Amino acid sequence: MPSVFDLHVHTGVGSPDSVLTPQDVVQESLRIGLTGVVLSEHWPWRTHEFNEFVSYAKDHGVVIVRGLEVKTEYGHILTFGLHEYSSGISSIAELRRVMDRKGGFMIIAHPFRFLFDVVGVAVTHTNNILFPDPATVPTVAEEAVSHPIFTYVDEIEVVNGGNSDRENAFSRDVAKLLGRKGTGGSDAHSKAGFAKGVTILEGDIRDENDFIAALWARVLTPGEGFHIGQLQYFGDVSEKLVVNGRKPAAEAPPLRGRLPSFGDRT
Ligand SMILES: [Zn+2]
Ligand SMILES: [Zn+2]
After folding, report:
1. 7: CA distance to ligand 2 center in Å?
2. Pairing with 144, which of 75, 128, 133, 219 sits 20 to 30 Å away (CA)?
3. Domain boundaries in the chain?
4. Which candidate, 199, 176, 196, places its Cα nearest to that of 78?
5. What's the pTM?
């Protein structure tokens, strides 16, 4: 039975720009029918609070995995297996070294966000971090694959709920040329668009170890539209990854028990 995860979610606990609460994550996952969620926060949770939340979510049948979205000179990297910041990891090379030591997995998030929006009266720059110079903006995927970022990361986010369709489609073209599967996540900072992007992983993923092992095994495919019961797959989809979707309920279910409020990270 495949598992359906949103690989890119921010809560207010680890991301000051998010209004999504941990309770929302559990309720929305149940309403939509997600297996689990990766909290790819900007700042790490306190470990005991995270563990408390993991077991609360587990009691409701939702798997929560810990991630960090680390800002580097080549943009935002979704990291799995890294629980804390260490010095120097805003450098992509150092982040790779640290992740290799930990056996962690790295995904470049929204690599082509703003690529097609040129800025400035005289078209002076783009707001895309990989290709800031309009003169070097790739027009076809073949022109983007030689960017050094792709030698550092293990996978490429090809469905990001905050990206335009054009930006996501370009990511998929690049991933295909590089022989990567691509991953999907919503980048949700509120209930709106939660689970818009998902990753379907082979097997019954129950915890962080299962999750990272499935990433390394690369039996995964990205999808879009799961949150409205209209899942569209991308890439080569094996039978093992076909999900029998259902129409999400209109109302979020009530939750059992009380979850303490978590400390403010800011
Ligand atoms: Zn980001
Ligand atoms: Zn993000």
Report:
1. 10
2. 219
3. 3-241
4. 199
5. 0.94
